Amino acid sequence: MRAQPAKSSEWRRRFADEARSERPDLSLLCLLLSGEADPELDEAGIDAAQIELDALAGQLPFRPGGPREWASAVAELLGGRHGFHGTASDYHRLESSLLHQVLRRGRGLPILLSVVWIEVARRAGAPVYGVALPGHFVVGFGSPDAHGKPDQVLADPFNGGRLLSTEDAEQLVAQTTGGRLNPSLLSAADPLNIMLRILNNIRAWAAARSERSHVALWALELSLLLPSHPARLRYERAQLLVERGDFLAGARGLDEYADVVATIEPTTADRVRLEARAARAKLN
User: Fold this and answer.
1) What is the pLDDT of residues 128-175, one digit of tens each?
2) Of the candidates 165, 222, 221, which has an alpha carbon nearest to the alpha carbon of residue 195?
3) How far apart are CA 186 and CA 166, in angstroms?
4) Strand ranges in the chain using DSSP code E only, listed in sequence order
5) pTM here?
6) Following DSSP, what letter does each residue of 224-280 receive, concatenated?
7) Which of 79, 143, 168, 244 could covalently link to 161 via disulfide, CB atoms 3.0 to 4.6 Å apart?
């Protein structure tokens, strides 16, 4: 199921406006995304989720201390008292990428649990930000320029807010990607980059389920509303439209993508135009 067309159009308008605002509200963007996926989510549901985040923030101690104390206090509240965490099965559920459902269930993907940590801690005045480790999103407290030094503390919301040393973070990256941790990856993640990563996760989830191609489509279309996004997403959307039988719209999208890349990748543009021609031929 998904939102009705008129409702979806309104969610998307607000999503685009918020994404282009001077200081995008991460929780609101996540909830507007949720509205695309859940036809039962309405304005009252969005307000209720924001109120829940406010209420959780109100349960944190007043200025508990430095970054480590903040990280410990948030972990005790969210991971301990309220039981927010993740399990392997959460990777198989779309709800794990929807903020209102994560708040309801106390379960989700690392990046959505990190959004909960960030939004609750931010409301309480903590120096908090997302840290986009490859394969496993975590949260940082303290200075985002410290890059693993004592004034930066990392926490893993997927594991209940477990505090991570630099060595722990290096091991986490090695386990999930087989690569090494570049210190630059410990910098603060931009809210819009967080949104793009959430949408990429949804697209990956849908790609493994052919009956959910409509989910992949709206995730692509929301990604294209972000001010900065990979141009290739336009190509992927056009391909998906063709796969779903919307040959005319898909062919039009392929031609538009070919026009974008023609000056820098003429061979690619020619190939994509052939794909557009093949898509139109399926109309006959």
Assistant:
1) 999 999 889 999 999 777 565 668 899 999 999 999 988 888 888 888
2) 222
3) 10
4) 128-131, 138-142, 152-156, 162-164
5) 0.92
6) TTSSS--THHHHHHHHHHHHTT-HHHHHHHHHHHHHHHTTT-HHHHHHHHHHHHHHH
7) 79
